Each structure stands twice: as C-alpha cells, then as structure tokens.
C-alpha cells in the first residue's frame, strides 16, 4: 500500500531541515540512509540538537534509530525525549560542535 502523501515511493522527498525528523511516513529500510543525511543537513544549518520521532509501537524503529546513532561520528549523545517531548516515542540527539 502506498502512502497517499508519497505518490511515488521512488521520488525523493523534500524534508524541512528544522531539527525535527518524523519517521512515521518512511519505510524502515529508508532509515539507514535518511538518518545520516538529515543529521549532516542539520549540522550544516547550525542545528546541534535534533528530535527524531520514531513512535512508541513495538520499539523496533527506536532500536534501529539508536543502533544507527551509536555508529555515526559526530554524535555527542542521544537519549529518549522527556514526557513533554514525546517520551519514549522520540529520541533527542545532541551533535558535537566542531
């Protein structure tokens, strides 16, 4: 089933680079490439704290996100968001400042 917001899954999606990445509309296999690219784009714009919304669900997407973050250079820290920021349905990423 295709996402109505994404009429052609092969077409690139234009994302706002604002420090908030909502993964709900993405296929899990897209996350491995998307996350490093989005983080690099935020760094270029001077955004050093990012909120990644992965949802609560079964936790598989959260585990995938955390696994990727743990391997990326330039990440100072990451943690689950506080209750006011999505709780365990979102992760806060702090980037190193070069």
Automatic annotation (TrEMBL):
Residues 21-96 form the Smr domain. Pfam families: Smr. This is Smr domain-containing protein. It comes from Candidatus Sulfobium mesophilum.
């Amino acid at each position: 089933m295709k996402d109505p917001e994404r009429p052609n899954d092969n077409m690139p999606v234009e994302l706002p680079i604002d420090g908030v990445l909502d993964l709900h509309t993405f296929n899990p296999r897209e996350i491995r490439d998307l996350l490093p690219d989005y983080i690099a784009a935020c760094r270029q714009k001077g955004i050093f704290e990012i909120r990644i919304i992965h949802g609560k669900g079964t936790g598989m997407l959260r585990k995938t996100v955390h696994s990727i973050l743990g391997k990326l250079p330039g990440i100072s820290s990451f943690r689950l968001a506080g209750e006011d920021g999505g709780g365990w349905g979102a992760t806060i990423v702090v980037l190193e400042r070069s």
